[in-house]
Input
Amino acid sequence: MGTRTVFIISDRTGITAEMLSHSLLTQFPGIEFDYRILPFVDDEAKIAAAKQQIDDDAKENGVKPIVFTTLVNDNLRYLLFEANGEFFDFFDRYIAPLERELKQTSSHRVGESHSMSDAKKYTSRIAAVNFSVHCDDGLHPGDYERADVILTGVSRSGKTPTSLYLALHFGIFAANYPITDDELEASTLPKILQPFRDKVYGLTIDPVRLQQIRSERRANSAYSELSQCRYEVGQVEQIYLAEGLPNLNATVMSIEEISATIIQDLALNREIF
Output
């Protein structure tokens, strides 16, 4: 069905509009979307420039671009709506009904959802990220007492990106520990993790996918051989089973899905930033 241009226009970072619009547009898999992100559109000059881009795109492609917006300022929003686009405004759609239900006028302050207005939450998030970096890939196990969760599994099974995502988006103190060949042969939970078994969560992955990932890092090595990947995955899954550890096959899951499952399974306390 061709390609449709999608503009995401915000008076701040655009992160909220980008996430929401992406969630909506994934429901239309037959269409390819060309995203144009325009953050910090917060005055009339920037609105005029955005309008010009929208009009130019409509003229060039012969179809209105889709425009998602989270502009708080009513005047700027109405100016933007003069452009030749198909508009979906998240604030216009939801703020008025919420005001009626809550019997209160909204603050109309810009950037509240991604600002440093709550210093305590911001500091907590940074501390969680620092902790995940500090305790990445088996580093500093002496600090595991501070962890909310310790992800484990074979090398390249998604532990590091998941740890950082949990920290950055939810303020969760997530460490990760790779199970080595010697520990795989022992077929038991590594001694270093045993005192914290109630915090340990296992990740596993399809061996073929693991081989593909490892080949991108170390092609034509024993580390990336399919037989090695099959051995390691089989051994780590036996450990999870023998130890009764909660675990997840992350082969076809996004980091967001993996993180949400871990939070749910371990009933972790999450912040929203």
User: Anything to note?
Assistant: The first helix runs from residue 15 to 25. The beta strands are 3-10, 32-38, 66-70, 86-89, 149-153, 174-178, 200-204, 247-249. The radius of gyration is 23 Å. The chain is about 45% helix and 15% strand.
